[in-house]
Amino acid sequence: MSKSERDGERRMVERNAGEGSRTVRGFDGAWLAESTGGTLAGDGSSRAATCEVDSRKVTPGCMFVALRGERADGHDFIGSAVARGASIVLAERKGCAARGKALSVLAGKACFVLVDDSLESLQSAALAWRLLFPKLLRIGVTGSSGKTTTKECIASILSRFMSIIVNPGNLNSEIGLPQSMFLVDGSHEVGVFEMGINRSGEMGVLSRVWSPQRVVVTNIGTAHIGILGDRQGIALEKSKAFSGMGPEGAAYLWEDDDFGDWMACRVPGRVVRFGERSADGLESVRDEGLDGWTIRWRGREARFPLPGRHNLLDALAAIAVAADLGATADHVTEGLSSMKALFGRTEIVRGETTVMRDCYNANPDSVERAIGLCDAAEWRGRRVYVLGGMLELGAESDSAHRAIGTVAGNSKADALFFFGEEAAPAREAALSAGFRGSVRFDTDFDELYSALRDFIRPGDLVLLKGSRGKALERLGPLFGMEG
Do residues 11 and 35 touch, judged by C-beta distance below 8 A? Predict the structure, then answer.
């Protein structure tokens, strides 16, 4: 979008919001139609304060966006969304025309804004909404891993002295990020939004919509390498997060990233490095094993409860951002000490059996880190590693799984359980590496569940690590956790 187009859109949204734009909460159908160039059908004064793309999550006073997907078409669920209280529906003309009779009865129950492309219109509306709040400092967090934890660490520190908003969970995609942006209101001083990609070109969309002034790149690893080709392709796509940044902006880059210097050359503003050597004011770090880290910064000590060096780096990235924005030692230590593990991200659950549940996602880098963390733990009992297949690796899948199998085969594990067809090469590699413990390979979840139920005993340390699609959290009931 050109500068003139941005200026025109800004004038338009300010005209619609009026003098109350600084404290505006929610929007009406007329504003949405003008923001998207859509056709208004129904009461344009109908208001919505939140946005959903899943009809099951719709609540009264919500905008429902009907999106066409590979497995489902949101237009089939408009009736359900309206029944749940959606006040505004953003939908495609063709999708509604094909269901004319079925949708005609809903015309009086919700305001419809009809467009050619629902996703593009959602993004345009989110951009228009963001332009209503020109004083909001926008921070973007991207990288191959650690995005959500870094975002939450930054938020935990900044919330000590600023009013902040973050995108919930990992709503970080070309759908989730613009959807989350409608949570911004005039009370917020800073927005910390995670920016995730799984295809080429997606970061350009996210950068245009959110246009972060500060960008954190946690690392350039191997996540989505099967889609983006190689690490160079990943770095190129991630660097597009800088495209909306001006000379007053800043990028925070890991000091040991192979692509750090390459990315630094593409930053229009300042470059701030983070890490143990680069952290200004960092006095010491002490590894507390599965209990996390003790971090001493500018005379104050934080007990950061998330274990593993990758989590330490996430904390150091957050310190770099927060210090840049004026955080004191008290803000930093209080923020880091109050952190809690996020679901499926290095969760340590203690009981008769201690479980490290790290199964929200997986790529070769993160699997090797998880194995290394469990190997390094002081443990008297058995170590049992349950490794699910890694997805989105493309042509690299077999070689990547063999590499992880070799790591697992040389680990301190007493037993290895591999799950998923993709993991077959990992099992073979573990055996080839000379692993002498118990090894099992399953493609049926119920069989994996039964085998683990019979094998696990009190005192074991169990690692659950696999891609989101493998849903290893379903093993939770074996250890007294929710599945």
Answer: no
pLDDT in tens, 62-106: 999 999 988 899 999 999 999 999 999 999 999 988 887 666 667
Query: CA-CA distance, 176 to 123, in Å (whole number)?
Result: 10
Q: Are 148 and 345 in contact (CB under 8 A)?
A: yes
Report the Cα–Cα distance between both ends of the chain, in Å, rounded: 45
Task: Return d(Cα 326, Cα 323) in angstroms, integer.
Answer: 5
R_g of the chain computed on alpha carbons: 24
Torsion of CA 53, 56, 58, 60, to 10 degrees: 160
| CB within 8 Å of 103: residues ≥ 6 apart | 78, 79, 96
pTM higher than 0.90 for the full model? no
Q: Which domains does the chain have, with CATH numbers?
A: 3-120 (3.40.1390.10), 135-337 (3.40.1190.10), 347-479 (3.90.190.20)
Q: Determine how β-strand 111-115 pairs with β-strand 39-41.
A: antiparallel
Question: Is 423's pLDDT higher than 70?
Answer: yes
| Per-residue pLDDT, 225 | 57
Is residue 70 a contact partner of residue 122, using CB atoms and an 8 Å limit? no
Please, are residues 33 and 165 in contact by the beta-carbon 8 Å criterion? Answer: no
- Give CA–CA dist 2/103, Å, rounded: 37
Report d(CA 134, CA 123) in Å as an integer: 17
What digits encode the pLDDT tens for the residues 29-71? 999 999 999 999 989 999 999 999 999 999 999 999 999 988 8
pLDDT digits 0-9 by tens, 285-318:
999 999 999 999 999 999 999 999 999 999 999 9
Asked if residue 146 lies in contact with residue 238, where contact means CB atoms within 8 angstroms, the answer is: no
Edge to edge, what strands does the sheet with 282-287 contain?
Answer: 282-287, 293-297, 300-304
Closest CA to 482 of 315, 344, 303: 344
Q: How far is CA 380 from CA 153, 305, 372, 430, 439, in A?
A: 32, 22, 17, 23, 20
How far is 154 from 144, CA to CA, in rounded Å?
17
